[in-house]
Amino acid sequence: MKKILALILALVMALSLVACGEKAPAADDGAAAGDDTTVYKMNVSFAAPEFSTTEITAALDRIQAASNGRIEFTYYYSWSLSSVPTVVDDLTSGVVDIAAVPINEHLSLFPYSNLVTYTPFLGLPNMLDAAKIYDELYAENEVFAQEYANLGLKYWTNYPCPGYNIFTTKDNQIKTPDDLAGLKLITSSSMMAQFIEAHGGAVLNSPVTDYATNLNTNVADGVVNHANVLAAFGCMDFVNGVTVFGDQGTAVSIMMMCFSEDAWNALPADLQALFEAEATALRDGQGAWDNGANGGNIAGIGEKGGAVVELTEDEIKVWQDAFAPFLSDYIAELEAGGATEAQAIYDALQAKLAA
After folding, report:
1. Do 285 and 55 meet the contact criterion of CB atoms below 8 Å apart?
2. Which of 217, 216, 235, 238 is nearest to 225 (CA)?
3. Distance from CA of residue 139 to its chain's centroid?
4. 195 vs 203: CA distance, rounded Å
């Protein structure tokens, strides 16, 4: 009896091994996309409040509708699910599936992307062109895609933020770099911080959620950022002066819309195509909205009696020339730190600007 049981057990094990070794039947290449009834539920994290993300959500709503019920988004505004310092980790860990990533707050993770966007006084024409130029450089240079891949992210599209200007609680009439002397300014840009300190100013680090308190209590005299951020986080009541550096500002920060690689790879090709089809519309639509809001917010400073100092091209060039040594040092620093194509990427940007 024991021999019979042993023989049966051996036969069962052999059959199991054969079954495990068999390949699953190949998918029918002619099957319609609609045959996939999986519902892909995705958490989307926004940096800004709901009222200022209308064009992003419009694009996402179109994607959701076009998926015929196969995609469902849940929106989280104003860092209510993620945060500036944790957003990359929140994507890779699955807390969020799609997020607006402020790469300018993660300089070491995105050296090439920040070089061609967030670096002060690059000569970018304006925020809308900056976004388009970034996408062109991304398509032409593998180093950009590699930045995201190294982090487990998938770049989808971007939307440009308005140019950074210098906003102050008083009418400081900032026209030249020497006018920075004695001012306590908030900036998240390490290069701008060096520049401010080299011209006699002091630099403060502050999360955007604390801007209003720091301005209202005179901890800071001003902020180097864009007007829409200040408006979104309750700062405009305390701003009574601004120096405007043309359409490009001192720099243009670009918010990157990113997937976690896992979330992106989980989507079938036909759903990925829906996102790809909306990439440009999201970028240009949200950029146009932000551009219009920025103009209104800056105009509002003058309307309430504040000072709006608009620099001429010649006056802006004084700042560019003064910043040039800092830029050269920064590129050398990037190359020494491993971003060995920094000079080549900067040269590629300048070639586009000169074309």
Report:
1. yes
2. 235
3. 17
4. 10
Task: Give the residue ranges of DSSP H helices in 34-102.
Answer: 54-66, 87-93
The bridge status of strand 184-186 relative to strand 222-225 is: parallel
Specify the pairing of strand 71-76 against strand 222-225.
Answer: unpaired
For the whole model, what pTM was predicted? 0.85
CA distance 198 to 177: 9
In 3D, which of 309, 295, 193 has the Cα closest to residue 241? 309
Residue 352 buriedness (CB in 10 A; 0-12 / 13-18 / 19+)? middle
Percentages of the chain per state (helix, strand, coil), in multiples of 5: 50, 15, 30
Question: How remote is the C-alpha of 15 from its chain's centroid?
Answer: 54
DSSP string, 30-49: T--GGG----EEEEEE-SS-
d(CA 127, CA 158): 11
pLDDT in tens, 25-74: 233 333 345 567 899 999 999 998 899 999 999 999 999 999 999 999 99
CA angle 107, 309, 247 (to 5 degrees): 50
